Protein backbone atom coordinates (compact mmCIF):
# COMPACT_ATOMS: atom_id res chain seq x y z
CA UNK A 1 0.00 0.00 0.00
CA UNK A 2 1.34 3.43 -0.95
CA UNK A 3 1.67 5.74 2.05
CA UNK A 4 1.27 9.51 1.47
CA UNK A 5 2.07 12.02 4.19
CA UNK A 6 2.63 15.77 4.03
CA UNK A 7 4.77 17.50 6.63
CA UNK A 8 4.56 21.26 7.06
CA UNK A 9 7.45 23.04 8.77
CA UNK A 10 7.08 26.76 9.48
CA UNK A 11 10.36 28.68 9.70
CA UNK A 12 11.18 32.19 11.06
CA UNK A 13 13.21 33.10 7.96
CA UNK A 14 12.53 34.42 4.47
CA UNK A 15 12.46 32.20 1.39
CA UNK A 16 15.84 33.41 0.18
CA UNK A 17 17.36 33.01 3.64
CA UNK A 18 16.01 29.48 3.85
CA UNK A 19 17.58 28.58 0.53
CA UNK A 20 21.02 29.42 1.93
CA UNK A 21 20.26 27.91 5.34
CA UNK A 22 19.11 24.60 3.89
CA UNK A 23 22.19 24.24 1.70
CA UNK A 24 24.41 25.04 4.67
CA UNK A 25 22.64 22.56 6.95
CA UNK A 26 22.73 19.71 4.41
CA UNK A 27 26.45 20.28 3.95
CA UNK A 28 27.22 20.42 7.67
CA UNK A 29 25.04 17.45 8.62
CA UNK A 30 26.60 15.37 5.82
CA UNK A 31 29.99 16.09 7.34
CA UNK A 32 28.76 15.10 10.80
CA UNK A 33 27.35 11.78 9.58
CA UNK A 34 30.41 10.75 7.58
CA UNK A 35 32.59 8.84 10.02
CA UNK A 36 34.48 5.56 9.93
CA UNK A 37 33.40 3.36 7.03
CA UNK A 38 29.97 5.00 6.88
CA UNK A 39 28.82 8.24 5.37
CA UNK A 40 27.48 10.02 2.32
CA UNK A 41 29.18 9.81 -1.06
CA UNK A 42 28.33 12.40 -3.71
CA UNK A 43 28.43 10.55 -7.03
CA UNK A 44 27.24 13.41 -9.21
CA UNK A 45 26.52 17.11 -8.73
CA UNK A 46 25.63 19.15 -11.81
CA UNK A 47 23.16 21.70 -13.20
CA UNK A 48 19.96 20.42 -14.78
CA UNK A 49 17.00 21.80 -16.69
CA UNK A 50 13.68 20.19 -17.56
CA UNK A 51 10.14 21.23 -18.42
CA UNK A 52 8.60 20.21 -15.10
CA UNK A 53 10.97 21.82 -12.60
CA UNK A 54 12.91 24.32 -14.67
CA UNK A 55 16.57 24.98 -13.90
CA UNK A 56 18.33 23.71 -10.82
CA UNK A 57 20.91 21.36 -9.35
CA UNK A 58 20.92 17.59 -9.72
CA UNK A 59 22.73 15.39 -7.20
CA UNK A 60 23.21 11.65 -6.98
CA UNK A 61 24.27 10.37 -3.57
CA UNK A 62 24.94 7.04 -1.90
CA UNK A 63 24.14 6.68 1.79
CA UNK A 64 26.18 4.10 3.69
CA UNK A 65 24.65 4.27 7.14
CA UNK A 66 24.50 0.61 8.11
CA UNK A 67 24.74 1.22 11.86
CA UNK A 68 21.52 3.25 11.73
CA UNK A 69 19.46 0.39 10.26
CA UNK A 70 16.76 -0.89 12.68
CA UNK A 71 17.78 -4.28 14.03
CA UNK A 72 14.49 -5.91 12.96
CA UNK A 73 15.20 -5.04 9.31
CA UNK A 74 18.48 -6.94 9.35
CA UNK A 75 16.45 -10.15 9.71
CA UNK A 76 15.32 -9.60 6.11
CA UNK A 77 18.63 -8.40 4.65
CA UNK A 78 22.25 -8.00 5.78
CA UNK A 79 23.08 -4.49 6.99
CA UNK A 80 25.77 -4.11 4.32
CA UNK A 81 23.12 -4.57 1.63
CA UNK A 82 20.94 -1.75 2.94
CA UNK A 83 22.69 1.04 1.09
CA UNK A 84 20.42 3.83 -0.14
CA UNK A 85 20.76 5.68 -3.41
CA UNK A 86 19.26 9.17 -3.67
CA UNK A 87 18.64 11.31 -6.73
CA UNK A 88 17.64 14.91 -6.08
CA UNK A 89 16.50 17.75 -8.30
CA UNK A 90 16.71 21.09 -6.50
CA UNK A 91 15.00 23.87 -8.44
CA UNK A 92 14.22 26.08 -5.44
CA UNK A 93 11.49 26.78 -4.40
CA UNK A 94 10.55 23.33 -5.77
CA UNK A 95 12.60 20.20 -5.04
CA UNK A 96 12.22 16.47 -5.59
CA UNK A 97 14.15 13.51 -4.21
CA UNK A 98 13.83 9.81 -4.97
CA UNK A 99 15.47 7.18 -2.80
CA UNK A 100 15.91 3.53 -3.72
CA UNK A 101 17.60 0.48 -2.25
CA UNK A 102 19.15 -1.92 -4.79
CA UNK A 103 18.58 -4.85 -2.42
CA UNK A 104 14.81 -4.15 -2.50
CA UNK A 105 14.21 -3.08 -6.13
CA UNK A 106 10.45 -2.53 -5.71
CA UNK A 107 10.93 -0.11 -2.81
CA UNK A 108 10.74 3.63 -3.49
CA UNK A 109 10.62 6.72 -1.32
CA UNK A 110 9.81 10.04 -2.97
CA UNK A 111 9.91 13.46 -1.32
CA UNK A 112 8.42 16.43 -3.16
CA UNK A 113 9.02 19.80 -1.54
CA UNK A 114 7.40 23.17 -2.11
CA UNK A 115 8.48 26.31 -0.24
CA UNK A 116 6.00 29.12 0.29
CA UNK A 117 6.23 32.54 2.03
CA UNK A 118 3.38 31.72 4.44
CA UNK A 119 2.77 30.19 7.85
CA UNK A 120 1.67 26.74 6.73
CA UNK A 121 -1.94 27.38 5.82
CA UNK A 122 -1.76 26.77 2.05
CA UNK A 123 -3.72 23.73 0.90
CA UNK A 124 -2.73 21.33 -1.85
CA UNK A 125 0.49 23.08 -2.84
CA UNK A 126 1.53 19.85 -4.57
CA UNK A 127 -1.49 19.78 -6.88
CA UNK A 128 -2.77 16.39 -5.74
CA UNK A 129 -5.80 14.70 -7.23
CA UNK A 130 -8.97 14.13 -5.20
CA UNK A 131 -7.95 10.51 -4.70
CA UNK A 132 -4.49 11.50 -3.47
CA UNK A 133 -5.92 14.17 -1.17
CA UNK A 134 -8.22 11.58 0.39
CA UNK A 135 -5.22 9.33 1.11
CA UNK A 136 -2.91 12.13 2.30
CA UNK A 137 -2.17 12.73 5.97
CA UNK A 138 -1.02 16.20 7.07
CA UNK A 139 1.20 16.83 10.08
CA UNK A 140 2.71 20.10 11.31
CA UNK A 141 6.23 19.99 12.72
CA UNK A 142 7.05 22.69 15.28
CA UNK A 143 10.79 23.37 15.34
CA UNK A 144 10.41 24.77 18.87
CA UNK A 145 9.57 21.26 20.05
CA UNK A 146 11.98 18.38 20.46
CA UNK A 147 11.40 14.65 20.50
CA UNK A 148 13.43 12.00 22.23
CA UNK A 149 12.89 8.73 20.40
CA UNK A 150 14.80 6.06 18.49
CA UNK A 151 14.95 8.05 15.27
CA UNK A 152 15.89 11.37 16.86
CA UNK A 153 18.76 9.54 18.55
CA UNK A 154 19.96 8.23 15.17
CA UNK A 155 19.70 11.44 13.13
CA UNK A 156 20.98 13.67 15.94
CA UNK A 157 19.37 15.57 18.74
CA UNK A 158 19.70 19.35 18.64
CA UNK A 159 19.13 20.28 22.29
CA UNK A 160 18.86 24.06 21.85
CA UNK A 161 15.98 25.48 23.89
CA UNK A 162 14.19 27.81 21.47
CA UNK A 163 12.07 29.25 24.28
CA UNK A 164 15.19 31.16 25.38
CA UNK A 165 17.29 31.13 22.19
CA UNK A 166 18.00 34.46 20.50
CA UNK A 167 20.13 34.99 17.41
CA UNK A 168 23.00 37.39 18.08
CA UNK A 169 23.19 38.52 14.45
CA UNK A 170 19.48 38.85 13.61
CA UNK A 171 17.80 39.31 16.99
CA UNK A 172 15.27 36.60 16.11
CA UNK A 173 13.90 34.43 18.87
CA UNK A 174 12.90 33.20 21.29
CA UNK A 175 10.15 31.01 19.81
CA UNK A 176 7.27 31.01 22.27
CA UNK A 177 3.88 29.33 21.95
CA UNK A 178 2.06 30.53 18.83
CA UNK A 179 5.23 32.00 17.31
CA UNK A 180 4.23 30.80 13.82
CA UNK A 181 1.40 33.37 13.70
CA UNK A 182 3.53 36.27 14.91
CA UNK A 183 6.97 35.97 13.34
CA UNK A 184 8.21 38.07 10.44
CA UNK A 185 9.78 36.96 8.16
CA UNK A 186 8.09 33.59 7.84
CA UNK A 187 8.00 30.74 5.33
CA UNK A 188 6.90 27.12 5.21
CA UNK A 189 8.42 23.97 3.82
CA UNK A 190 5.74 21.60 2.52
CA UNK A 191 7.20 18.09 2.22
CA UNK A 192 5.11 15.40 0.58
CA UNK A 193 6.48 11.96 1.41
CA UNK A 194 5.30 9.02 -0.69
CA UNK A 195 6.52 5.55 0.27
CA UNK A 196 5.86 2.27 -1.48
CA UNK A 197 7.35 -0.90 0.02
CA UNK A 198 5.32 -3.73 -1.55
CA UNK A 199 6.88 -6.57 0.43
CA UNK A 200 4.82 -9.11 2.30
CA UNK A 201 5.64 -9.53 5.97
CA UNK A 202 7.53 -6.29 6.58
CA UNK A 203 6.48 -3.73 3.97
CA UNK A 204 4.02 -1.88 6.23
CA UNK A 205 6.47 -1.89 9.13
CA UNK A 206 9.16 -0.51 6.84
CA UNK A 207 6.87 2.27 5.61
CA UNK A 208 5.99 3.29 9.17
CA UNK A 209 9.63 3.24 10.23
CA UNK A 210 10.69 5.41 7.30
CA UNK A 211 7.89 7.91 7.91
CA UNK A 212 9.07 8.23 11.51
CA UNK A 213 12.66 8.52 10.34
CA UNK A 214 11.87 11.24 7.81
CA UNK A 215 9.91 13.19 10.42
CA UNK A 216 12.86 13.04 12.83
CA UNK A 217 15.22 14.16 10.06
CA UNK A 218 12.95 17.05 9.05
CA UNK A 219 12.70 18.20 12.66
CA UNK A 220 16.43 17.94 13.31
CA UNK A 221 17.51 19.64 10.08
CA UNK A 222 15.07 22.53 10.50
CA UNK A 223 15.99 23.01 14.15
CA UNK A 224 19.58 23.21 12.93
CA UNK A 225 18.57 25.75 10.28
CA UNK A 226 17.48 28.17 12.97
CA UNK A 227 19.95 27.35 15.74
CA UNK A 228 22.86 27.75 13.27
CA UNK A 229 21.49 31.02 11.86
CA UNK A 230 24.47 33.04 13.09
CA UNK A 231 26.77 30.75 11.07
CA UNK A 232 25.01 31.01 7.69
CA UNK A 233 23.27 34.41 7.91
CA UNK A 234 24.67 36.85 5.35
CA UNK A 235 26.15 34.17 3.10
CA UNK A 236 25.20 33.99 -0.58
CA UNK A 237 24.11 30.99 -2.61
CA UNK A 238 27.36 31.23 -4.58
CA UNK A 239 29.44 31.11 -1.40
CA UNK A 240 27.52 28.05 -0.21
CA UNK A 241 27.98 26.35 -3.60
CA UNK A 242 31.73 26.84 -3.35
CA UNK A 243 31.76 25.37 0.16
CA UNK A 244 29.62 22.48 -1.07
CA UNK A 245 32.13 21.58 -3.76
CA UNK A 246 34.93 21.50 -1.20
CA UNK A 247 32.79 19.48 1.20
CA UNK A 248 31.75 16.93 -1.44
CA UNK A 249 35.36 16.34 -2.41
CA UNK A 250 36.37 15.89 1.22
CA UNK A 251 33.48 13.51 1.94
CA UNK A 252 34.23 11.35 -1.09
CA UNK A 253 37.93 11.26 -0.27
CA UNK A 254 37.11 10.21 3.30
CA UNK A 255 34.81 7.39 2.14
CA UNK A 256 37.31 6.10 -0.44
CA UNK A 257 40.21 6.23 2.02
CA UNK A 258 38.28 4.37 4.71
CA UNK A 259 37.13 1.76 2.19
CA UNK A 260 40.72 1.16 1.06
CA UNK A 261 41.92 0.86 4.64
CA UNK A 262 39.15 -1.63 5.39
CA UNK A 263 40.01 -3.68 2.29
CA UNK A 264 43.69 -3.76 3.23
CA UNK A 265 42.79 -5.36 6.57
CA UNK A 266 40.78 -8.16 4.96
Quick synopsis:
This is Phosphatidylinositol transfer protein N-terminal domain-containing protein. The protein has 266 residues and is an alpha+beta fold. Helix content is 33%, strand content 29%.
Task: Walk me through what this model shows.
- It holds the Pfam family IP_trans.
- It comes from Juglans regia.
- This protein is an alpha+beta fold and 266 residues long.
- The chain has one domain: Alpha-D-Glucose-1,6-Bisphosphate, Chain A, domain 4.
- It has six helices and eight strands.
- The protein has helices at 15-32, 130-135, 150-155, 203-227, 229-232, 237-265; strands at residues 3-11, 39-50, 54-64, 84-91, 94-101, 104-116, 137-141, 187-196.
- Helix 1 runs parallel beside helix 6.
- The protein is globular.
- Mean pLDDT is 88; it is low at 257-266.
Radius of gyration: 19 Å
Question: Mean pLDDT across all residues, rounded?
Answer: 88
Distance between the termini: 42 Å
**Number of helices, where a helix is a run of at least 4 consecutive DSSP H or I residues:** 6
Number of domains: 1
The CATH class name reads Alpha Beta
CATH homologous superfamily descriptor:
START domain
Largest sheet descriptor: 8 strands, mixed
Q: What letter string, H or E per element, gives the SSE order?
A: EHEEEEEHEHEHHH
Provide the CATH architecture: 2-Layer Sandwich
Question: Strand content of the residues, in percent?
Answer: 25-35%
**Spatial sequence of strands, sheet with the most strands:** 2-3-4-5-6-8-1-7
Helix content: 25-40%
Class from helix and strand fractions: alpha+beta
Shape summary? globular
Number of strands: 8
Query: Which residue ranges are poorly predicted, with pLDDT under 50 across at least 5 consecutive positions?
Result: 257-266
CATH fold-level topology? Alpha-D-Glucose-1,6-Bisphosphate, Chain A, domain 4
Protein name: Phosphatidylinositol transfer protein N-terminal domain-containing protein
Organism: Juglans regia
GO molecular function: phosphatidylinositol transfer activity
Pfam families: IP_trans
